Amino acid sequence: MTADLLIQSTIIGLSIGSIYILMALGLTLMFGMMHIINFAHGAIYMLGAFAIYYIFFQGGVPYFAAFVLAMILLGTFGYLIERSIYRPIKGGIEPTLVALLALTTFLQAAGYPIFGQLDKHVPPVFQGTRNVLGVMVSVERLMIIPMAGALVVGLYLFINKTKMGAAMRAIEQDKEAAALQGVDVHAVNGLAFAIGFALAAASGALMAPIFKLDPMMGEQPLLKAFIIIILGGLGSIPGAILGGLMLGLIDSIVATALGAEPAFLLSFVFIILVLLFKPTGLFGYAP
Amino acid sequence: MSSTLLLETRGLTRHFGGLAAVNRVDLAVAEGEIVGLIGPNGAGKTTCFNLLSGFIRPTAGTIRFDGEDITRLRPHQVVERGLVRTFQLTTLFQEMTTLENVLLGLHLHSRRGLAHALFSRRTFPPDEVARSREVLEFTGLAAQAGQLAKNLPHGHQRVLGIAMALAARPRLLLLDEPVTGMNLDESGRVMALVKTIRDRGVTVLLVEHNMKAVMGTCERIVVLNFGQTLAEGSPAAVSTNAKVIEAYLGAGLEHARG
Amino acid sequence: MRLRIGVLVVLALLALLIPPLGGDYYVHLFALVFTNVILAASLRPSLTCGQLNIGHSAFMSIGAYASALLAKNLAVPFEISMLCGAVLAAAVGLAIGYPSLRLRGVYFAMVTVAFVEVIRLIAQLWVPLTRGMSGLSGIPKPNLLGVTLATKASQYYLALALMLLTLLILWKLESSRLGLIWKSIGMADNLAQSLGVNIANHKLLAFMLGCFFAGVAGAFYAHFIRFLFPPEFGFLMATNILVYNYVGGRGHFAGPIVGAVFLSLLSEPFRGNAYETIFFSIAMLLTILFLPGGLITLPGKLAGLRWWKTPAALSPGATA
Q: How confident is the prediction for chain C on average, in pLDDT?
């Protein structure tokens, strides 16, 4: 691989990695709070992308506004899911996981009749290319990095500097103790769902101008997000960030060299190995 | 009373990260004794139990049971040799009745081979049912035989845990906080049960915070602090030991003596 | 008890009558339903042990490809190729299961999900062997004990026989002491360990058994549909098999059977289009929310309704 190709792959890898980080953050947050894996995350990513299609492309709303709107819509959806599905389920984690599997299956299948069979495209929001370190990279891809970065910073500030964020951290540490101290665990769980879904939607919204849209588009990002949170450790935010970057880079560089599918295969084999030797991931802790 | 050493640890150590939860502990329990293992919170008592019963591996040191090195054995292998434990947090088969819980304790323990397992019916053989009822009688739970374990009051649940452990035919019984959360009456009855268990030939090593129970039942006491043995001896000796009193800030012991 | 045997006899008769009465469409449909039953029932031991296993489709895939390739390239008869496929699936199950035993809860589930993807990708990328995304076609019809089962009806009976044999074996195991051990592991594995159960071995056995029968189902499927396409055996199928167990009911042996039959049949009118999956997933959600014990608890719940009760029906609990 030439140096140029390597640099380009790296930059694109950072771009993709930013998306992965957003997906992984949502997942890891939900795991840390409620010890569930949101199997519906991929479907929400997809919905975020389609939201951009309809609101921005079809609806003519300016991109940033559409972006925020998509996050709010799907965040609200997340809150509703917490109330209608997560909260009523008794019997532990397993039924919840299965219910989330059902939700994702439903959303993906419903996408076909609702969004239509034909592939949809969202045209690039940011035109042109820029010369970075001697290679040409599309501005669209470049813009993902600061936008995702802004969200990550926003999340960090929220979790560490607000009361709600403190409540979330308290629940993550010890749910019972938090409840005893007056934290409304149900409401905060609802918020976790909302944030998780919003982040997934943001990932999809950012990727919408880059890839073609179809109802199953969320499945791969979901599986990749799994890889990341396992690598980084379930429930660990720094782990999600680090893992997201790592996978973005691996994906981009290895995929350029070997092809997308072998890269995918390699990353799965890698996490199986990680799990077998360090059962809680690189930075994680046991549920 | 025989003075064969049933359990002996040498230099038993377990690290978690950089911290030694258990640090070079030498423990000895002779057959027929009731030994108490006490210490402030975080002293390493439950870690000791986990090490002895094979649930976690020691970082260093050895454990000998009846002369055999059991340091590296897994929990089911340790049970096979007669070392059975109970759990600090109530662990029962919640959705089954009291009788079924004890039956399972017996049944799971009975070594009858895969062939028997494959071709036998699931209904429990009458001899196992009879023996389970005996255990319930012995532990005072006969009246609760048909109740679901999850519906039992806390005290009965703890006793059921002991009953199940007895069903596994222990030679040494490790009781993890048997009377925690019980009132004076209940704890008195349970400790009396512990004495009866010993009189039936089962050696007992117990961890407890309830000083009155410990001092009144155990013949010998080992005190742990920060993972190390702080003192060892008769209840009287230990309760007047200055180092022990300091470790506990006097609260629990004063209470027991008074 | 008599009711149960009666029901079984009636079902057996119905099953035997489907080819003469139903015609090719129903024969094809039910052969696949039986395959789903094998898949669902063989996942049960794993689930009973408390392992959230979302990897079953990978082992079906292994059995399918192994049997197909042996028959197609080496003219191996079905009884041998199926066994080889099943044993290979079990062996791979051992390889992945043994190290994964220590993993709890979601971590184990993730390994199984990852594994499904690994197998799918291997099948896709190993083109010289599996023809990758073009699909493996030209798989011969089942050649059983020297006889080629050429008609759909004969293949249907093969499926029926395999299903009954599988269910018989699994039932025997579940109602033996082994089944009780599995159940105790699922209920409280620490406790089971402290009572002398070797939970590692027993969990592995449950897992491998499941893999074996998934391989059997895969082998039949390969010779029945006679075309294999890697993405078929992916996350979606693994999820479906899990769902058969949850919707049918986890508390009883008949649960996965009921779930597999019910869901396979009811999604049939929608087969092949998005509505099948939509319907499926709604059924899943509704069952989990409103009938958490699964369909198998429905008769009990109906019997519990006031207007059905007669004094005789109010019998005390079963235990001594």
A: 86
Tens digit of pLDDT for each residue in B10-46?
999 998 877 888 999 999 999 999 999 998 887 888 8
Q: What is the pLDDT of residue A11?
A: 87
| Mean predicted confidence (pLDDT) in A239-260 | 85
Amino acid residing at B46: T
pLDDT at C109: 85
Q: What is the pTM of this model?
A: 0.86
Residues 100 to 139 of A: which have CB under 8 A from any C CB? Answer: 101-103, 105-106, 108-113
Structural domain range at position B142: 92-169
What are the C-alpha distances in Å from B159 to residues B7, B87, B136, C320? Answer: 24, 11, 10, 20
Residues B157 and B42 in one domain: no
Residues of B with CB under 8 A from a CB of C: 53, 55, 74-77, 79-80, 84-87, 91-97, 99-100, 104-105, 107-109, 112, 114, 116-122, 129, 145-146, 164-165, 167-168
Extents of the domains making up chain C? 14-232
Considering A5-9, B99-103, C35-39, the range whose residues carry the highest mean pLDDT is C35-39
Question: Nearest Cβ partner of A268 from C118, C280, C289?
Answer: C118
pLDDT of residue B110: 66
- Comparing CB atoms, the residue among B76, B95, B97 nearest residue C197 is B76
- DSSP annotation of A120 reads B
C200 vs A: CB within 8 A: no
Question: What is the CATH code of the structural domain delimited by A3-277?
Answer: 1.10.3470
Residue B258: the pLDDT is 43
Q: Give a yes or no: residue B24 inside a domain.
A: yes
* Residue C276 vs residue C54, higher pLDDT: C54
Please tell me the predicted confidence (pLDDT) of residue C313. 37
- Put simply, the answer to whether C104 touches A35 (Cβ < 8 Å) is no
Would the CB atoms of B84 and C194 count as touching at under 8 Å?
Answer: yes
Same domain, B162 and B184: no
Q: Could you tell me if B101 and B112 lie in one domain? A: yes
Q: Are residues B61 and B135 in the same domain?
A: no
SS (H, E, C) chain C: CHHHHHHHHHHHHHHHHHHHHHHHHHHHHHHHHHHHHHHHHHHHHHHHCCCCCCCHHHHHHHHHHHHHHHHHHHCCCHHHHHHHHHHHHHHHHHHHHHHHCCCCHHHHHHHHHHHHHHHHHHHHHCHHHHCHHHCEECCCCCEECCEECCCHHHHHHHHHHHHHHHHHHHHHHHCCHHHHHHHHHHHCHHHHHHCCCCHHHHHHHHHHHHHHHHHHHHHHHHHHHCEECHHHHCHHHHHHHHHHHHHHCCCCCHHHHHHHHHHHHHCHHHCCCHHHHHHHHHHHHHHHHHCCCCHHHHHHHHHHCHHHCCHHHCCCCCCC
Residues B118 and B157 in one domain: yes
**Unique residue bearing structure tokens 């009921």:** C258
Find the radius of gyration of the CA atoms of chain A.
19
- Domain check: are B216 and B235 in the same one? yes
Where on the phi/psi map is residue B61: left (φ > 0), alpha (ψ -120 to 50), or beta?
A: left
The pLDDT, as a whole number, for residue C278 is 81
pLDDT at C202 over 50: yes
**Are the beta carbons of C194 and B75 closer than 8 angstroms?**
yes
* Chain A partners (3+ C-beta pairs within 8 A): C
